[in-house]
Design a protein that fits this description.
Layout lengths: L1 E9 L9 E4 L5 E5 L8 H11 L20 E9 L2 E9 L3 E6 L2 E2 L6 H13 L3 H7 L1 E3 L11 H11 L3 H90 L3 H31 L12 H82 L1 H39 L4 H23 L5 E4 L5 E4 L13 H21 L7 E5 L8 H14 L4 E6 L10 E8 L2 E4 L2
Parallel strand pairs: 3-12, 3-13, 8-11, 11-12
Antiparallel strand pairs: 1-2, 1-4, 4-5, 5-6, 6-7, 9-10, 13-14
Length: 570
């Protein structure tokens, strides 16, 4: 059982720099009163913030710090479980989260999230949702059990019955199965690989025994053929090289024609220019007897002598020009022959290159065949080694097959365990066992509050309502006052069930403004009777702004606001 002993806080919400402290295990019933805004509900936020790092009301973490002092926000809660004393300290500005066990602060090497998870799973044995269903009932920010989703309802019940361990076990088994299936996939691949190796090795040995010598002989025959082909190509190349040699010599005889043609072309151009110049001069004297420039008569003898000299030079140049053209023609024939010989040499050289490539190919094939012959010869000489290799493959295959069979068997066992630990397995059987008690207690508390309906929850925690005056009713169909009675009945039932499961049982019960809204006068009276005479081993705190109820409680805490700060009245 968790026995909450005291809680204190400072610089939290409207509380100032002085600690506000409340003993949580002193009186059976305590009334907390005060005007609106006086801070009477702060204890709810302080309690849930210290334990779960979130306030009860919808307030952001940054808003929890007192807006005047703006630092040193701190909440401490002390409780004991059996013989172990616990203290949880949480602070903002500076941030702090400490868990003390028997006065010693525990190691804080883990992250805040991991520490919080450990606190909920190993110490409190409840998460925020379950805690609020068992310890707190509020009128404004509280989400009643019947308004939770199906998943959250189940989560609360599993916490209450202390069967979440089955979910943890299920997750562990799920991870184990995932790992085992991965091992099976790996072993299956290994088995397939070894099967292939055994098959290939067997085929290889058959080939080695039956075809090894035949392949060696075939390779030797191929090598002989390739040598013959290579020799033939070499012989052809020898003939081609002789032809190239002869053509090269012949080419040397007609070499240089291009240079001579270039020079002759220059001379030819020069002669043509001279002939043109003399012809122009001759034409001038033939056509003119008077100088066109000075207008004087040209002497006839001078004119005729110039014409005669020019005609003689033209005949002389013309003769030389014709001889030059003949020489050019001969050189052009030599150049043509040189070009023809070059093409033939190129063709022969290309043929030699192709044959050399073929010879290289033959030599490469010969080397490959000789390597294979060497390998086959070595393998034939080492048949015992290949037999040993085959035996090793078969042994490894058998071992892998046995491991695979074993892993598959283990997976089948884990699958069976997984099916048992699922929601429909052991947990459902345990829940089914407690359902009659739950339904019995809910209806017992409803009758105590003068609400005569038959309210039952099924295994999926969906309600069925039977009433003489209500047909086809559900929780949502009732008025707010009727819903409050159902919420209270469920709260008291959860606490009753928690008594059977010591790990989630607690002395603390806090109810915020349950009288102030939905409960009528009669309902309030019946409720006060329940918390005083029926709820066992509990320290009940009721927060209210109603007056006139002080004498109905063992103690009264009054909140007031002084100079903007909330405090307990002296």
């Amino acid at each position: 059982m968790i026995v909450f002993q005291n809680i204190r806080w400072k610089n939290f919400l409207s509380t100032g720099n002085q600690y506000t402290e409340i003993n949580l295990d002193q009186d059976s019933t305590t009334l907390i009163v005060g005007t609106n805004g006086s801070g009477k509900s702060t204890v709810l936020d302080a309690l849930t913030f210290s334990l779960f790092n979130k306030p009860f009301r919808k307030i952001s973490k940054s808003q929890l710090i007192n807006t005047v002092n703006e630092k040193d926000c701190r909440v401490e809660v002390e409780f004991c479980i059996a013989e172990t004393q616990w203290k949880v300290v949480r602070a903002i500005k500076p941030n702090l989260f400490e868990i003390h066990r028997n006065g010693i602060c525990m190691d804080q090497f883990a992250s805040v999230n991991d520490q919080q998870k450990w606190l909920e799973q190993n110490v409190i044995k409840m998460n925020y949702k379950s805690f609020t269903q068992i310890v707190i009932l509020g009128s404004s920010n509280f989400v009643p059990f019947m308004q939770l989703s199906a998943t959250n309802r189940r989560e609360v019940i599993e916490d209450l019955l202390d069967i979440k361990i089955f979910s943890s076990m299920n997750n562990l088994i799920k991870e184990k199965i995932r790992g085992l299936r991965e091992d099976v996939r790996t072993l299956s691949l290994k088995k397939e690989s070894l099967n292939d190796k055994v098959k290939m090795q067997t085929e290889f040995m058959d080939e080695l025994e039956q075809q090894g010598k035949g392949r060696i002989e075939d390779n030797n025959n191929k090598i002989t053929t390739l040598f013959s082909e290579s020799d033939e190509y070499a012989k052809i190349n020898s003939e081609l090289e002789n032809n190239v040699h002869d053509l090269t010599k012949e080419q040397e005889k007609v070499a240089g024609a291009t240079g001579k043609l270039r020079k002759m072309g220059t001379i030819k151009g020069t002669l043509a220019n001279k002939v043109a110049t003399i012809t122009k001069k001759t034409k001038f004297f033939e056509e003119n007897t008077v100088c066109p420039t000075c207008k004087q008569d040209i002497e006839e003898e001078f004119r005729l002598n110039n014409i005669g000299d020019a005609q003689d030079k033209i005949k002389e140049l013309q003769s030389g020009y014709e001889e030059l053209e003949e020489a050019i023609k001969k050189e052009e024939e030599r150049e043509h022959h040189f070009t023809k010989l070059s093409k033939e040499i190129t063709s022969l050289t290309h043929g030699i290159s192709k044959n050399n490539t073929r010879i290289s190919g033959c030599q490469r094939q010969i080397r490959d065949l000789e390597s294979e012959i060497q390998r086959l010869t070595s393998q034939l000489a080492n048949r015992n080694t290949e037999h040993e290799k085959l035996a090793s493959f078969k042994e490894n295959l058998e071992d892998t097959y046995n491991k695979l069979s074993s892993q598959k068997e283990i997976i089948s066992y884990h699958d069976f365990s997984y099916s048992l630990l699922k929601d429909g397995g052991v947990k459902s059987k345990i829940i089914k066992k407690y359902l009659p008690l739950i339904n019995q207690q809910v209806n017992r508390y409803l009758q105590m509050m003068d609400f005569y309906i038959n309210f039952t929850l099924d295994e999926e925690f969906n309600e069925t309502v039977q009433s003489p005056i209500h047909d086809n009713f559900s929780y949502a169909s009732f008025s707010e006052g009727e819903k409050m009675r159902i919420d209270l009945a469920l709260l008291f039932t959860w606490r009753e069930v928690a008594r059977y499961k010591n790990s989630v049982n607690t002395n603390l019960l806090i109810m915020d403004e349950v009288f102030d809204s939905s409960l009528d006068g009669y309902g309030t009276e019946e409720f006060l009777k329940i918390i005083r005479f029926v709820v066992k081993d509990a320290n009940v705190f009721v927060i209210s702004h109603k007056t006139g109820m002080d004498d109905r409680f063992d103690s009264v805490l009054r909140y007031e606001k002084v100079k903007g700060f909330s405090r307990l009245a002296p």
